[in-house]
Amino acid sequence: MCGIFGFVSRRELPVALVVDALRTLEYRGYDSWGIAYEVPESVGTYLAVFKQAGRLPPKLPPLPTSPIALGHTRWATHGGVTDENAHPHLDCTATLAIVHNGIIENYRPLRETLERTGHHFRSDTDSEIFAHLLEDSLERAMTESRLSESPDLLVEAVRQAFAQIRGLNAFIVLHLPSRQLVAVKSTSPLVLGIGTDGVFVSSDAVALVGHADRIYYLRDDEVALLSPDGPRLFDRCTGEPRQPQWELLTLRPADTSLGGFPHYLIKEIHEQPRVIKRILRERLEDARQLAELIQRSYGTFFVGCGTAGYAALCGSYLFSRIARRHVNAVIASEFKYQEHFLTDRSLVIALTQSGETVDVIEAVQAAKRRGATVAALVNVTGSTVARLADFTVPLSAGPEQSVLSTKAYTAKLAILLLVAHILNGSEHVGIDVLWRAIDGMEQALAPATLDRIRAVAEHLVDAEHCYVIGRGLSYPTALEAALKIKEVTYIHAEGFAGGELKHGVIALIQDGSPCLVFSPLDETRPDILSGAMEVRSRGGWIIGISPEPDEAFHVHIPIADVGDASPLVTIVPAQLLAYELAVRRGLDPDKPRNLAKSVTVK
Q: For 31, which of 81, 105, 197, 516 could close a Cys bridge (C-beta 3.0–4.6 Å)?
């Protein structure tokens, strides 16, 4: 989940560009940060390391230029949030620096062995172990070859050190004597970039915008050696040279800027209608091909985590309702406990924004081991899930830099609704209802609706608990709305199926308890309104999100009636409410505590 970045160049570049890249990557973790770079001296060069706990400060003292540097922004796993545990980490000679994303699962026995052989550790992290393993491997390789500065020796040392660790990991290594970087990974992402100023490597392509023209997603079975003369690739198992297939970096600076908004979260909420338009323009043929795969399958499964898991659950309702087809929606982290009934006729559809979520990757790998076909709805086309899948539908949502997922969620729903209609033979209806949803989302983002949501936020700003109910298509929306509120406001929010109120949940209601009620104009309306009235009669304060008002509502937030596309529209007021609450509570909407965007560790 951590963000890592490095560069090497024939000329000196500002070290500050590493800091800027870390700001772009900070959604991957912001417990601590650090940089390392070469500093020339009259008697020889040395590695300067600056790191500290906490988020990157808005301003830093002036930084020098350097031909080589790397940096890291951390989501803590092993070791507390301290300056010492921040990355980069050095070996005993202070000529090797490493940054790491992942977890070394066998770190304890490795550390014990290294300490017995005289290595001195400065941190409590598992990450530092790799610097010392590499130190030993490099010393051994140099002794055996009697060559001190062979680039291939550095690659060989990294290969040997990486072979000793267990887990899903990505490293960038800076070797001061040869002025080179080495990148190596297993599942955790790394992207190489080539630009006019040098060679770059990052855990996400968004940090390469403005620096690289061409990119390459490093494979698990490769090691990359980055030198001022350019990158070289090697097979991680054999050490044989590889030839990468570079692709153009299509992202532009405008894709990653705030665009006049105060936070990425509110910017991305407002981008949702445009994303659905893009899907209708660009992804119709992909939706048709996915429908063909589903038609040929014998057993279809949606898998996803968090927000993507709720999109999967909503998809199961859409497929039942529109396509008259049963689809199993499974939380990706639980999928490996239910994989036993997969066959070579099964189809597993992975839903993921980043394509790097480790639980989704493991679900995909389990499916492939059993011969199932894998499709993916994924936002990052070069990601691990995209490469593993037999067929991929890009979400076309653009970079999502707030930790909270919004536009990727509605993109998944739009594609699933379209596919359901294609399976039903009513593609034209699916297209029409999505255009209606676009209009409805724009109405939900209009000033009049925003004013009502802000008034609700003022009322709820000091709330400790919040409940959200829905039925049918609105049940997954209730779960997603509650997730958005608790993710970014830290208010305890729970989503429930409306029919479950009398089976225990209503015991939580007391005088003043806020309750969001999703009530589209469908067959669920009479029952959900009945439940809302029961909550109100016990003192609950009811916020109704519905095309029409009702006596059960204390506050009515009007939305458009868009039929089966209601989940795309009803979620927008809940996203806006979560944002407005976070702002009023003095919280950072883009970087909620303890969370990171791309969950690449278990």
A: 81
> Sign (positive/negative) of CA torsion 333, 338, 343, 346?
negative
Torsion from C-alpha of 584, 585, 588, 591, nearest 10 degrees: -130
Per-residue pLDDT reduced to its tens digit, 295-342? 999 999 999 999 999 999 999 999 999 999 999 999 999 998 888 889
What is the C-alpha separation between 476 and 497, in angstroms, rounded? 8
Asked about 92 being catalytic, the answer comes back as no
Q: How confident is the model at residue 145 (pLDDT cuts 50, 70, 90)?
A: low
Residues of the chain with CATH 3.40.50.10490: 258-445, 446-590
Neighbours of 387 (CB within 10 A): 15
The DSSP code for 88 is P
**Cβ atoms of residues 482 and 460 within 8 Å:** no
Active-site choice (51, 267, 591, 597): 597
Per-residue pLDDT tens over the stretch 199-244: 999 999 999 999 999 999 999 999 999 999 999 999 998 889 999 9
Identity of the highest mean pLDDT range in 22-36, 38-52, 303-317: 303-317
Q: Which among 2, 305, 314, 466 is annotated as catalytic?
A: 2
What DSSP line would sit under 379-432, residue for residue? Answer: S-TTSHHHHH-SEEEE-------SSS--HHHHHHHHHHHHHHHHHTT-HHHHHH
The C-alpha angle 73, 77, 81, rounded to 5 degrees, equals: 60
Class of domain 258-445: alpha beta
Is the predicted pLDDT of residue 284 greater than 60, yes or no? yes
Structure token digits, residue 15: 């070290």
Nearest to 222 by CA among 236, 239, 203, 243: 236
Q: Annotated catalytic, 597?
A: yes
Give pLDDT tens digits for 471-493: 999 999 999 999 999 999 999 99
CA 582 to chain centroid? 20
Strand order in the sheet with 96-102: 89-90, 96-102, 169-175, 180-185, 222-227, 230-235, 241-242
**Residues 6 or more apart in contact with residue 143 via CB below 8 angstroms:** none
Q: How confident is the model at residue 602, as a pLDDT?
A: 64
Amino acid at 271: E
Domain 3-255 - what CATH class?
alpha beta
Domain with CATH 3.60.20.10 in the chain: 3-255
Give just the sign of the alpha carbon dihedral 425, 427, 428, 434: positive
How far, in Å, CA of 218 to CA of 226, rounded? 12
Token pair, residue 141, equals: 């390789």
Please list, in sequence order, all residues whose beta carbon lies within 8 angstroms of the beta carbon of residue 530, skipping any fewer than 6 positions away: none
Answer CATH for 446-590 from 3.60.15.10, 3.30.390.50, 3.40.50.10490, 3.40.50.970: 3.40.50.10490
